[in-house]
Amino acid sequence: MGFSTNLQSRGGHEALLGRQDAELRLLETMRRCLLTKLRCDRDYSSALCAVTAQGQKVERGDENNYLTGSLVAQAWKGVLEELENVAKLLKINADIVEKETLEKLNTLYIEKKKARKTYQDEHTRISLQMSNITEEVTRKKAEYQKQLENYRQMRSRFEDHYFKSGRGGRKLDDVRDKYQRACRKLHLVHNEYVLLLVEAEENEQSFRTTLLPALLQQHQASQELFVKSWRNIMRE
């Protein structure tokens, strides 16, 4: 699924954010579980060391060497050595996991959180541009309708005075002047409204075909890299 073609809607945007929030929570859960495992492994390693130390007391307590050559004593010594090796391996592995795997998880979490914020901020920015020009079109449309209504009133008033008072008179001149001003104002607002509609259409086209697809495509590429990193971490 391509983000740039399938996730341009508001629902798609919210789905993207929701998925990223869920993945961040999952990463945080994995990090906590890994920390718990490290603590358990180290506790187990310490416990095995304690068991080994306890078991070695028998050998150290045999001052008269009564157990020398004993097959049972040799087998017991082998068991203790194996326990000691397991304890060392557990500690070494815990240190490696803490230094490498846990650090990679922390880095991945930080980078994914940063990528989410970058995407949301940029999406908000370009969406706000569209929202602002849409609001401007709405305001200009209301102004145009207001001027159109005023023009109709002035024209009706002028026509009434024209037919009642003839072609002259101070009153008629005053009404004619107001009518002409209303006409000029209407033409001005009409031109501004038309230009704004053209600008809004161009912005909408740019938003849908360039800005938003580019943002989504870039975000998809970053998320795919995160998935690869995540998969590699889990394979370790």
Characterise the protein shown here.
With 236 residues, the protein is mainly alpha-helical. It has a single domain (10-234), classed as Arfaptin homology (AH) domain/BAR domain (Substrate Binding Domain Of Dnak, Chain:A, Domain 2). Helix content is 92%, strand content 0%. It has four helices and no strands. The chain has helices spanning 3-6, 10-61, 71-165, 170-235. It is rod-shaped and about 140 Å long. The relative contact order is 0.10.
Structure summary:
The protein is mainly α.
CATH superfamily: Arfaptin homology (AH) domain/BAR domain
Helix content: over 70%
The CATH level-2 architecture is identified as: Up-down Bundle
In total, the number of domains comes to 1
Number of helices: 4
Strand proportion = under 5%
**What is the CATH class designation?**
Mainly Alpha
Topology, pairings included?
Blueprint (H helix, E strand, L loop, with lengths): L2 H4 L3 H52 L9 H95 L4 H66 L1
Helix pairs in contact: 2-3, 3-4
